[in-house]
Amino acid sequence: MQALPRAGLTNASEAASAQLVDRAIAAFDPPLPLAVAFSGGADSSALLLACHARWPGQVRAIHVHHGLQAAADGFQRHCEQVCARHGIPLQVCEIDARHETGQSPEDAARQGRYQALIQAAQQGFSGADGGGLEAVRSLALAQHADDQVETLLLALSRGAGVAGLAAMPEHWQRAGLEWFRPLLRVPGQALRDWLGQRGLDWVEDPTNTDQGYTRNRIRAQLLPVLEQVFPQFRSTFARSSAHCAQAAELLDELALSDLQAVGMPPRLKDLQALPQARLGNVLRHWLRSVHGTTPSTAQLAQLVAQIGVCTTRGHRIHIKVGCGFVQRRGAILDWYNS
After folding, report:
1. What's phi and psi for 141, nearest 5 deg?
2. Which range is least confidently modeled, 207-216, 278-287, 292-301?
3. In Å, how far are 102, 278, 308, 311 from 320, measured between CA atoms?
4. Which residues contact 145 (CB under 8 A, 6 or more apart)?
5. Is 107 annotated as a binding residue?
6. Taking the domains of the chain in order of start, what are their residue ranges?
7. How far is residue 74's CA from residue 41's CA, in Å, rounded to a whole number?
8. Which of 247, 253, 262, 291 is geometrically suited to a Cys-Cys bond with 162, CB 3.0 to 4.6 A?
């Protein structure tokens, strides 16, 4: 871990860059009180302190201790010092972020982090006098425009559909809380410039330079090239993601309508009456929304093909889909996980 103090800015372009953060926070209008996921890095430091400056007394911090590297204890100490210095209530949550077989380390850490944030927000915070504070209504995460581009490029590399290409949403609801990513249109460098303008420090996670992670290779090798060839790539990519998000929403609405028509569990005869594209769309929606599983492209294509040729009473359908199996059961389709 390295703490990075910054002197005041001397460059007018850096000052203009820092103003992007102020504009983003000025446009941010969450229900208060607000909790910020605070790692101690530059991104979450800028978000936390900018929100604290705008809504003093209404902002809390949640630090998740992953326990995956030796520097984690140092991250926690830094966060405690920052919050004590600024009078920001802090909760520290320790999680076991080790991944299971077949699960990526990044996904394990992400899922554990979300659960810890929800639990911390629901448990509540104590004030300086030890008394309970008003319950948190919103949670803010510090992902920025570069993170959004990386997410989109990763989705493209995996052949994702419109839902994947929609990348990260700016606002959603979960566990009775309003969730926000208010910095998705702000470049990562602007957050460092904002901290530097105020002489504030942060910690640098040593894994951020580990080229073993695909995200880090994108950040180090691909984004600089995009900056040279397409200087406005952050805003244009964001626009494409927004179009994909809108398309994904329409597909979900169509799937919901079709699912009501074919029944739940879906009837084979009614599924066969749908055009192929709508058939695939409603099957994907049914599996995801009802059974919490997502078929691969090959699995979905196989299922669509089997439904199309299922014209006799004895035709058997039994296909591996996601973490379970889709099977024919008389006149309907069923999914099970044994």
Report:
1. -115, 150
2. 207-216
3. 16, 21, 17, 21
4. 183, 184, 185, 186, 187, 188, 234, 238
5. no
6. 2-235, 263-336
7. 12
8. 247
The one-letter code for the residue type at 149 is: V
Tokens encoding 243: 């179009």
- By CB atoms closer than 10 A (0-12, 13-18, 19+), residue 278 is middle
Which of 175, 171, 173 has the alpha carbon at shortest distance from 118? 175
How many other CB atoms are found less than 10 A from the CB of residue 90? 20
Length of the chain: 338
Provide φ and ψ at 94, rounded to 5°. -100, 135
Residue found by looking up tokens 């009078």 in the block: 87
Instruction: Specify the DSSP class assigned to residue 59.
Output: E
Q: Give residue 222's identity as a one-letter amino acid code.
A: L
Q: Is 41 annotated as a binding residue?
A: yes
Q: Is 205 marked within a binding site?
A: no
Do 42 and 197 contact (CB within 8 A), yes or no? no
Who contacts 268 (Cβ-Cβ below 8 Å, separation ≥6)?
307, 310, 328, 331, 332, 333
Q: Tell whether residue 40 is among the known ligand binding residues.
A: yes
Segment 266-282, tens digit of pLDDT: 999 999 999 999 999 99
Strand order through the sheet with 318-321: 318-321, 324-329, 332-336
Pairing of strands 177-180, 171-174: antiparallel
pLDDT class for 4, splitting at 50, 70, 90? low
The answer to the question of whether 131 is labelled as a binding residue is: no
CATH topology of domain 2-235: Rossmann fold (3.40.50)
Asked whether residue 42 is marked as a ligand-binding residue, the answer is yes
The residue whose two tokens read 């880090």 is: 216
